[in-house]
Amino acid sequence: MSELGICGWLSREGKFYECGESKHNLLASRLEKELDLKRFDEDKSIYLHDTALLETLGFIKFTQSKYGKTDEIQINQFMLFFGVRFSYPQRRWMEANILKMSPGQKSECRQRLILGY
């Protein structure tokens, strides 16, 4: 079990795509092409790409960085998700793989699962 935890993207279908820290955008670009993902943003009148595309499609970004943590704010974001609710396959994957997560990821994951994201 790694102290760093997991790093990558979790699809709505519950498939995890691993990458190194700070490599999420490269992986998102590759997945866009390999999975033939597309999304048109009506408000901006553009096609979304890379990270913005995966976020809009409901992928969960797992990171090892401590986003949002400052001396005054002690909130880490090890999971970035912009949807309304996790899909059932995402919830099942997180429950099955929580022991692979870092302590911060485990804590955030458990809290979000309890809150019913």
The fraction of residues in strands falls at 15-25%
Structural class by helix and strand composition: alpha+beta
Rg, please? 14 Å
Query: How many independent structural domains?
Result: 1
The coarse overall form would be globular
- Largest sheet data: 4 strands, antiparallel
Oligomer: single chain
The largest beta-sheet arranges its strands as 2-1-5-6
Number of strands: 6
List keywords for this structure.
globular; alpha+beta; 117 residues
Topology:
Blueprint: E1 8-10, E2 16-18, H1 24-34, E3 40-41, E4 46-47, H2 50-56, E5 60-69, E6 74-80, H3 88-97, H4 103-115
Antiparallel strand pairs: 1-2, 1-5, 3-4, 5-6
Descriptive report:
It contains four helices and six strands. With 117 residues, the chain is α+β, with helices and mostly antiparallel strands. The chain has one domain. β5 and β6 form a beta hairpin. The mean pLDDT is 87.
In short:
With 117 residues, the protein is of the alpha+beta class. The chain contains 4 helices and 6 strands.
